Amino acid sequence: MQQKTKLFLQALKYSIPHLGKCIQKQHLNHCNFADHYYNRIKLKKYHLTKCLQNKPKISELARNIPSRSFSCKDLLPIKQGNEKSFSENMDAFEKVRAKLETQPQEEYEIINAEVKHGGFVYYQEGCCLVRSKDEEDSDNYEVLFNLEELKLEQPFIDCIRVAPDEKYVAAKIRTEDSEASTLIVVKLSDQPVMEASFPNVSSFEWVKDEEEEDVLFYTFQRNLRCHDVYRATFGDNKRNERFYTEKDPSYFVFLYLTKDSRFLTINIMNKTTSEVWLIDGLSPWDPPVLIQKRIHGVLYYVEHRDDELYILTNVGEPTEFKLMRTAADTPAIMNWDLFFTMKRNTKVVDLDMFKDHCVLFLKHSNLLYVNVIGLADDSVRSLKLPPWACGFIMDTNSDPKNCPFQLCSPIRPPKYYTYKFAEGKLFEETGHEDPITKTSRVLRLEAKSKDGKLVPMTVFHKTDSEDLQKKPLLVHVYGAYGMDLKMNFRPERRVLVDDGWILAYCHVRGGGELGLQWHADGRLTKKLNGLADLEACIKTLHGQGFSQPSLTTLTAFSAGGVLAGALCNSNPELLRAMTLEAPFLDVLNTMMDTTLPLTLEELEEWGNPSSDEKHKNYIKRYCPYQNIKPQHYPSIHITAYENDERVPLKGIVSYTEKLKEAVMEHAKETGEGYQTPNIILDIQPGGNHVIEDSHKKITAQIKFLYEELGLDSTSVFEDLKKYLKF
C-alpha cells in the first residue's frame, strides 16, 4: 500500500496523466513518470509494482502547467525505398510482445490507487472503489462504488481524497483514451452511495469548516485550460458554487493542501510566474488571503508549519530557487526571510516538511543529494546519494520520525532508502542486490558546447563491453520547459544495455537539470543553445570512443522532438536512425495559431511569432518542419496517438509529408544505388498523449532500431524473456 510521486519542479510542465491502469490487474513492466500525481512504486523481490496516488506534495504544483506535444490521426505508415522486410524477426518480436502481455499476476504485482485515512485504506480493486481496514488482509474489503456505473471504457482511478471526518470520499476517474475526467463523491455509510459527480475536474481537496461540515474545493478544466475553482458541500446543506476564475488565459490554476492540512492554497501560475492565495483550512468560508501578487518572472510555492510559511522561490539574486519563511499572518514578500540557499547548478527536485525538519531533494551537477534541515536549530546535513541513482521517487509519509524515498535509474528498478531523524542517518534497504550493479557502468561525462558551456551527460553500458566504438548507441534528449530528461526505470532500456547497447542521456539547455538558469538559457531566443548542446554531446561521445555515426540512434518524445528534428536537418550525418513519440515538429505554425487551446500558455517557452518578428525569425531557424530540405536523412520512426488532445493534427502530418518529398527529391538527385531511409508513421489507437506501457509500441520501436542498424536481435529477445522473470 504505497504511492508514487513524480519528480519536482520540472519547471511548470504539465505532466499528462497516464497512471498505471489498475483495471483488471493489468501487468506492467516499468515504473513510469506516470505521469501524473504523487505516485510511488513498490518492489517485492524484484516484482515491479506500480501504484496510483495519494496525497500531493508541494512539488506537484510545478507539474501542472499545460504543455504542448503532438500527434495525428490514423494514417498509413509511410516508407521511402529500402523496402526491406521485417518478416525475419517479426515472429520473435510478436512472441516477446505476447509474453509481455500475458504475464501472470505474480510476475508483476499491481497495487491499486490508494490513500490511508483514519483506520482505513481506500483504493481501487478491479473496477471498484473499495476500502479495507489498515493492516488487514487486502482481500477483505468493502465496495464503495462500481466504476462501471459511469459507463466509461476501462475506467481507472486517478486520485483519491477522503473528507476529514470520513463522511465522504472523492475519487477522480479517467480512461486511457481521453484527458476528460469525472469526479465522484461517495457518502460513506452502511450502504455507500454516490452523492454527486462533476465532469472535467483537475485538482481537488477537502477541508472542514467551523461547524464540522466537509467542504470540497475543485478546479474545472475546459479545452485543456484550468481557470475555475469551485466550492461544494453535500448532505442537507448541498451547494456548488464558483469560487474563483482566473481571467488571464496564459495562467493555470491548481489546488494544493499543505502537508499539515492547515491551509488550502490556490496556485495560479504559468511557466515563469506564480501567485498563491491561502484558504484557512479551519474557516473555508472566509475570503482567501493573497500571499504575494504575481510578479513577472517570480515563482513561489508554499508549505506551512507551526504558524510559519515556508516559501520555495526564485525571488532575488541569483534567480534560482531558495527557501524563505515568514509568519503566516504576515505573508507578503517584504516579510520573507532567507532561510536556505542552494548551491549553484542545483535543481530542487522536491521538498517535504516534517514536524522538526525540512527535507530537500536536490540534483547538483547531475548527482543526487538530500539536505536535511533542522528547524529547531537551523542545522543542515547534506547527504550525497549513490552515483548510480538518477531519480527520486517520493513517499507522502506521515511518520514524523522517518523520511522514506526511493532511488532509481533507467536500467535499475527503485530501491528503498529511509532517513531516520533520531539517528541522523540514511538507511538502505537490505536484501537481494540487483545484478545490474556488477554487469553495467554509469558514467557522468561532459561535452563542451559551441559557446564553451559544459553540458552534462549520463552514460550506461555493460561492464565487460569491448571496443565500445563498435557498439550501438541510443541517445536521449528533451531540453524544454525546464524539465529533466525522464530517467525512471524502463525494462526495455535495461534489455538494450544487457544486449550491448550504450545509452546516453544528454542534459541539454532548456531542460532543468542544472536549475532555472539552465532552462532560461535554452528557451525563447536561446533555443538554439539546446541544439548546439546536443550536437556537442554526440560528437563528444564519438570522440571518446562511444560508438560511431553508423551505429548511433536518437530518441525523443513530445517537445524533445524539436531538438531531435532540428538535429536531423542540421547534422543528419551524426545519426543512423531516430524514434520520435508524439513529437512537436511544427513550432512556427502551431505557435501562430492562437485558436489552439495551449498556444497562449506556451508563449513563455517558444515565443510569440504572431506579434514579435524577432521571435518569428528565430523560430524559423530551428523549427524542424521549416528546415526540411533535400538531403540524406536518418531513418525515422514516429509514434503518434489517435486521441492525443494536445496535438494539432496538421503539424505531424505536414512534417511527414514534407520529409517524404525531400527524401524522394534527394534520391532522384543522387541517382541509382542510393538507399533511401525509411520514414515510418505509426499511429497507435487510443491514448491521450504518450503511453509508456504499450508493449506494441515498445516492440515496434525496438524492432525498428535493430533492423535499421542491421543487428542480430536474437539475444535481445532472450533478454526480454529473462527480464520477465526478474
From TrEMBL:
Pfam families: Peptidase_S9 (PF00326), Peptidase_S9_N (PF02897). Keywords: Hydrolase, Protease, Serine protease. SUPFAM superfamilies: alpha/beta-Hydrolases, Peptidase/esterase 'gauge' domain. Its EC number is 3.4.21.-. The keyword Magnesium does not apply. Residues 489-703 form the Peptidase S9 prolyl oligopeptidase catalytic domain. It comes from the Eukaryota. It is an enzyme of class 3 (hydrolase). Serine peptidase whose precise substrate specificity remains unclear. Does not cleave peptides after a arginine or lysine residue. Regulates trans-Golgi network morphology and sorting by regulating the membrane binding of the AP-1 complex. May play a role in the regulation of synaptic vesicle exocytosis. This is Prolyl endopeptidase. It comes from Galeopterus variegatus.
